[in-house]
């Protein structure tokens, strides 16, 4: 005989509905939204370049059979680019309202029945996770790279109507298929953490196509990622930076892209300064686009020093404000040179009484000044025109051979004067000059000791003239370059044939 236990009174009472607190407490242990290794659940990617959950701007870049897709945010694109700010505004936008179909009961014929909360908690882990769509009141924009109808047209992003799904609204991104992964051999936490760290440091692979690379770098900068630019070859890096800046200029994003380019190029340091010295007009345009004060001023000093040599490369290729700045700085430099030349020609020596030297009171000192002024005239003035050729003159005259000698450039001339040494008018030239003068000619019958004393005195007076000339040209020897080409004690690049004393103030930059 089987006996049954007696039921108590509280067990026979009607069961009351569970409270919200108890229901959530009992059902919490069944709720699990995290993906396991090799599991069936999956959350769409929500990081650069595909913000599938929060992105509202789809961008498709096609070039030479390659395609790159982005799902980005209108807010970030509008903050970084004037193009996206205008094209996604209410006046110009073609955005379409997107969202999923509203949840309906069985009477609405939507095919989706209302599921109770208890059943939803118990069956949530068994359901596949659907692609996440944006809210209904959100908008979606779509851009595609349009190559135009002509070969010389520059490809540009064009806004297209957002594609719609079968059930209305914009088409959502579906997650890629999850490959079958083998079961892990060990569940060690430290091994998993080490693998995760090594995977996080994998560098981003740059696209092969130049256009896709430029667009990828543009959007990476928008999201505060480092652009993929060559860190070793400065020539290749210049080409990449120039292409990226032209793209940023087209989309009105130079204020955001320029500092990144400036930071990347300044890492080359001395190699950058040498490249700017070789190609100053090119780096002047790049520095202007990047809003780089260091690169722009470095290139401008070279351009002004050689002006008007690079005028053809810059005319109609830089803004008018930049061209006017170059001309103004070139005029200031030319005015400094004229004032310096005037001071050099007015140099004089004085006697012990404080009088200016003349042939009457100090003939030897007057000869030293005359020789210095003659040397200065020959190196600062163009040579006189050649005499007309005669029919019988087949051999060039000594004067013709001397005039064919290339003149000294202004930079080298003033650096010779600043050296104040035997670099110009050395001992042999002074001795030769005295031999052909009346004071020390071939007919002179003085003894050898007397002739040596006169030569030493003449050299000492010439050294005094050179020291005076050094003080006069000292302001022109200031160099505001970052480049170092074997500077002497007071500065000035020795290897350059032009002056580098041009200085840019903060108010001179054309973009401020």
Question: Can you characterise this structure?
Answer:
With 512 residues, the chain is of the alpha+beta class. Helices cover 43% and strands 6% of the residues. The chain is built from 19 helices and 7 strands. The chain has helices spanning 9-12, 20-27, 74-80, 82-87, 117-123, 189-200, 210-222, 234-250, 254-266, 270-278, 280-290, 293-306, 311-314, 320-345, 363-380, 398-403, 410-419, 427-435, 448-473; strands at residues 46-47, 50-51, 57-63, 66-72, 96-97, 139-146, 156-160. Residues 7-15, 18-28, 30-40, 95-134, 165-203, 441-445 and 487-493 have low confidence and may be disordered.
What sequence of helices (H) and strands (E) makes up the elements? HHEEEEHHEHEEHHHHHHHHHHHHHH
**Approximately how much helix is present in the residues?**
40-55%
How many strand units? Answer: 7
Strand content: 5-15%
Enumerate how many helices there are, as a single number: 19
Structural class: alpha+beta
List the helices and strands and how they pair.
Elements: H1 9-12, H2 20-27, E1 46-47, E2 50-51, E3 57-63, E4 66-72, H3 74-80, H4 82-87, E5 96-97, H5 117-123, E6 139-146, E7 156-160, H6 189-200, H7 210-222, H8 234-250, H9 254-266, H10 270-278, H11 280-290, H12 293-306, H13 311-314, H14 320-345, H15 363-380, H16 398-403, H17 410-419, H18 427-435, H19 448-473
Parallel strand pairs: 3-6
Antiparallel strand pairs: 1-2, 3-4, 5-6, 6-7
Helix pairs in contact: 7-8, 8-9, 10-11, 11-12, 12-14, 15-19, 17-19
């Amino acid at each position: 005989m089987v006996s049954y236990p007696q039921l108590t009174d509280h067990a026979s009472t009607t069961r009351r509905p569970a409270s919200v607190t108890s229901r959530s407490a009992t059902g919490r242990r069944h709720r699990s939204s995290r993906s396991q290794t090799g599991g069936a659940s999956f959350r769409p990617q929500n990081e650069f370049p595909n913000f599938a959950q929060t992105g509202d701007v789809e961008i498709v870049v096609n070039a030479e059979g390659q395609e790159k897709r982005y799902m980005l945010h209108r807010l970030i694109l509008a903050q970084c680019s004037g193009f996206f700010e205008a094209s996604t505004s209410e006046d110009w936008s073609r955005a379409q309202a997107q969202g999923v179909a509203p949840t309906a009961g069985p009477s609405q014929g939507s095919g989706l029945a209302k599921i109770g909360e208890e059943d939803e908690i118990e069956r949530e882990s068994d359901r596949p996770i659907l692609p996440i769509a944006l809210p209904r009141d959100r908008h979606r924009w779509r851009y595609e790279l349009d190559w135009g109808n002509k070969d010389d047209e520059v490809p540009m992003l064009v806004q297209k109507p957002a594609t719609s799904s079968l059930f209305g609204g914009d088409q959502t991104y579906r997650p890629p298929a999850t490959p079958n992964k083998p079961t892990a051999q060990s569940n060690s936490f430290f091994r998993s953490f080490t693998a995760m760290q090594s995977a996080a440091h994998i560098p981003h692979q740059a696209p092969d196509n130049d256009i896709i690379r430029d667009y990828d770098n543009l959007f990476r900068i928008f999201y505060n990622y480092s652009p993929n630019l060559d860190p070793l070859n400065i020539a290749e890096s210049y080409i990449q930076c120039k292409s990226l800046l032209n793209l940023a200029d087209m989309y009105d994003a130079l204020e955001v892209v320029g500092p990144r380019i400036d930071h990347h190029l300044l890492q080359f340091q001395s190699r950058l300064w040498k490249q700017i010295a070789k190609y100053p007009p090119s780096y002047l345009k790049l520095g202007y686009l990047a809003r780089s004060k260091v690169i722009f001023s470095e290139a401008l000093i070279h351009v002004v020093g050689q002006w008007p040599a690079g005028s053809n490369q810059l005319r109609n290729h830089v803004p008018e404000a930049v061209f006017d700045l170059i001309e103004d700085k070139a005029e200031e430099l030319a005015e400094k040179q004229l004032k310096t030349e005037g001071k050099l020609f007015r140099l004089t020596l004085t006697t012990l009484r404080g009088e200016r030297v003349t042939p009457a009171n100090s003939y030897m000192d007057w000869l030293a000044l005359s020789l210095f002024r003659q040397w200065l005239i020959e190196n600062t003035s163009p040579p006189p025109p050649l005499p007309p050729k005669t029919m019988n003159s087949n051999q060039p005259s000594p004067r013709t051979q001397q005039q064919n000698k290339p003149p000294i450039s202004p930079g080298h001339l003033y650096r010779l004067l600043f050296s104040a040494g035997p670099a110009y008018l050395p001992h042999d030239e002074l001795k030769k000059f005295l031999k052909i003068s009346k004071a020390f000619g071939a007919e002179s019958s003085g003894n050898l000791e007397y002739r040596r004393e006169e030569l030493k005195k003449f050299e000492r007076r010439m050294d005094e003239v050179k020291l005076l000339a050094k003080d006069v040209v000292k302001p022109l020897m200031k160099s505001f370059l970052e480049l170092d080409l074997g500077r002497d004690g007071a500065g000035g690049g020795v290897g350059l044939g032009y002056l580098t004393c041009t200085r840019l103030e903060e108010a001179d930059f054309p973009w401020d």
